[in-house]
Amino acid sequence: MATGGIPLARVIVLLALVAMPATSIMIDSTAAAQDAGDLLKTGLEQVRAGKYKEGIATLRQALAADPSSEEVMQALGRAEYEALLAVMASGQEGRLVVMAILNRAMPTVPAEAFNAERLAELVKLAVEGDEEQRFDAASELSRVYGEFAVPGLLAYLKSSNTDHRINAHITLQNRIGRDAVLPLNEAMQSSDAGVRRLVAIELGNIGDMRSLAALTEAATKDSDEGVRTKAAEALEKIVARNSWAQGMNASQLYLRLAKLYYDGNYRVLSRSDRPIVVWRWDGGLKRMAVPRFLYVLKLAEEAAYDAMAADETNTDAAATLARILASQRIAAAAALALAEEDETLMAAAKGLANVTGLLAGLGWTTLNQALAESLAQEDNATAASLLSMMHHTYSGDEFGEGSPVVAATGSSSALVRYAAAEAVLRFNGLKRIASWPNPDAFMGLVAQGIGESVPRSILVIDANDNRRNKMITELNKAKMNVYPARSGADGFVRATRLAGVDLVVMSSDLADMEALELLAKMKDNDLTKNVPVVIVGGADQVSNDQWRNLYKERVGGIAPIPEGPGLPTAEFLKVVKGTFGEEGPGAKARYMASSQILDALAGTDAGNGLFNWESLTETLAAMLGAELPDDIPVRIGAIRSLGNIRSPGSLQQLANYFANESDPVHKAAAGLAIANVNRAHGITMTEDVFNKVLAGTGSSDAAVRLAAFAALGSSQLTPAQMREVAMRNRPTLASMGGDEDE
Predict the structure, then answer these.
(1) Which of 80, 224, 386, 715 would staple 44 via disulfide (CB 3.0–4.6 Å)?
(2) How many Cα atoms occupy the beta-carbon half-sphere of 691 within 13 Å?
(3) pLDDT (tens digit per residue) in 126-184
């Protein structure tokens, strides 16, 4: 098919060169498939005629109808393409819709299309073929293979054949373009100065800001003067378009890149089955395959390591690396939750096995800095992950008002508060804490963490600060744990990093992408494809049938958010709660955090007079008779914590539980807790407590019998009680293996 005299393949190549994020649309639609093409044609005709508003509305309907790449390619000619670019340039409301349409024109690459032999053949044709062969081969390389063509083309850059060098250069710069940047950056580590010079020239011509750090390092440190010169020239070109980089050293630039990746600023993944890899130089360009959901984190990790290598004193780089690793821990947990269904996810989770140890190895100071940065950016899941690791590095530091750990205990996020409570308890178990700004408030937090249900986790994505804060306030009032995101890209990153997010609430008016596009990205990701979504809009939008029809088959609920002052209506909460599919969280979700805090409480130094440990007794004792899940160690954690706190006020409740419990493990734990209380206070047990414990000495379970005897022996028995213990358990001849006379 030709359009305006230009082959469609050339139009698609032009599309690939448009400077816009590599995003895509893939939505399950109930609209009839034949409607998508018709809607596209109508919308494009309207845009060509200058009817931008009508055309944008029609194109949005076309996106909702899930057009195939082929349908877009058939509808999109040169005239339509130029009209869409005009809409983008005019700053019209439909800019994001246009970007999504243009991205949809890029065909999805089937897995079987990625073939090593075909790749080598195409590289050769792109360099050595005739004009038509070179164009077609370069087009296929760009569309199907992208960055994977770089190693082969790099070899041609060193050719003695001038034509081959020029053709390789043209293919790299004009066809592969930005997709070549990451492997070319790594090629700056080549031992061949000639290669480094050529790569510096290519990077300068491509002009991507991701090359700033590698070129700066080469311009200042390379051993070859020619490389330094070419790198400096290339650097000058890129800095001219990125003035913020002026005067920054390589380590600072690598760190900035790491943070950009971590924040999800580079939406680098297109909807393609092309392998996802990270490049390194090891005697040549080597690639390391990574799971799709880990890709940006791995890119961030590589940049953070480069920042540290360029300047070992860069503490900011170490803190950023800690945040990246903490996020990878969360990703590993999410992957494990789905691993039974996907061998790739299982392999990814296993591949992150050393992340926890490495994170601990970064040390207390680095983790504190990383925690402070995470709290400042409301990166709550990462903050909680960091807190769970910090006890491995604690060596007795004091805690003042400026401590990020103290700040975490006052976070608006329940997830962070409870993680901080657990962390402080573990710190105090390793080395007695000498100072804390408000000990009573901390005890209140621990009690809340023990006894309160863990709320639903909700991600709220909205660029409008006022509207987003309204929703967060209302959801917090409903005792839900809320994560904020200010853009679609940020929201997608956070959705993939939050292990077990229950719901996404998102505005239809995102600043950086179409809401339909974000829904498609979530649907296409293993970690978010089953997360329910509520879409929110203004009253006029929600009452508009055409607007509602765009989303109603793709989301779990639609709710209005009022403009101006005032919180969301009751309808908003009704929709949110109804989208969960059940009235409230299950027992496992409610008590998982509680069990972690209880485990820490059971091992903390309860002799630390800084805290009023006995204030927790009533909350802990109440858990002995509560309905709790059997597969989460909540109740036994409460028993062990009571035994650690050793409050005389818990003795009766422990004895009641010991008498009535049938499970020998729990029963024995209660007996040992009674022994701890008796031992700490030299208690003479009441007759009721004494009799209930004494009955345990006749148990058929050896652990229960031993616990009962320990509880009795650690108390101040009266002479009568001591006689009763001895007489009740007097050995018989039969028990000693002898015979009794009849």
Answers:
(1) 80
(2) 3
(3) 999 999 999 999 988 988 888 999 999 999 988 889 999 999 999 998 889 888 999 99
Please check whether residue 654 is in contact with residue 688, taking contact to mean a CB–CB distance below 8 angstroms. Answer: no
CA distance 564 to 471: 13
CA angle 692–696–699, rounded 5-degree value? 150
Amino acid symbol at 331 = A
Buried b (16+ CB within 10 A) or exposed e, 593-620: bbbbbbbbbbbbbbeeeebebeebbebb
Please report the pLDDT score of residue 590 as a whole number: 53
Burial of 113 (0-12, 13-18, 19+ CB in 10 A): middle
Rg (CA), the chain: 32
Distances (CA, A) of 415 to 44, 335, 375, 387, 637: 47, 20, 12, 11, 19
Strand order in the sheet with 533-537: 481-485, 457-461, 503-507, 533-537, 557-560
Distance between CA 319 and CA 149 in Å, rounded?
A: 35
Question: Which single residue is written with the structure tokens 């058939």?
Answer: 74
Return the amino acid letter for 355.
V
Question: d(Cα 722, Cα 729) in Å, to the nearest integer?
Answer: 11
Residue located via tokens 């790491």 = 258
d(CA 420, CA 152): 51
Cα distance between residue 475 and residue 198, in whole Å: 56
* Three state DSSP letters for 38-89: HHHHHHHHHHHCCCHHHHHHHHHHHHHCCCCHHHHHHHCCHHHHHHHHHHHH
Give kind and range of the element (H or E) at residue 737: none
Q: So what's the pLDDT on residue 14?
A: 34
The answer to whether the CB of 69 falls within 8 A of the CB of 34 is no
* Residue 127, token pair as written in the block: 């360099």
Structure-block tokens of residue 340: 């039974």
Structure-token pair, residue 529 = 């494809």
Contact (Cβ atoms closer than 8 angstroms) between residue 451 and residue 626? no
Question: Please, is 242 exposed, middle or buried when counting C-beta atoms within 10 Å of its C-beta (0-12, 13-18, 19+)?
Answer: middle
Mean pLDDT throughout 47-63? 85
Distance CA 562, CA 575 (A): 15
Q: How far apart are CA 297 and CA 285, in angstroms?
A: 21
Bridge partners (DSSP) listed for residue 2: 7
On the question of pLDDT at 289 being above 90, the answer is no
pLDDT of residue 19: 33
Stretch (H or E) spanning 3: strand 2-3
Beta-sheet strands, E only, within 125-176:
none
Are 670 and 658 spatial neighbours (Cβ–Cβ below 8 Å)? Answer: yes
Closest CA to 126 of 167, 177, 159: 167
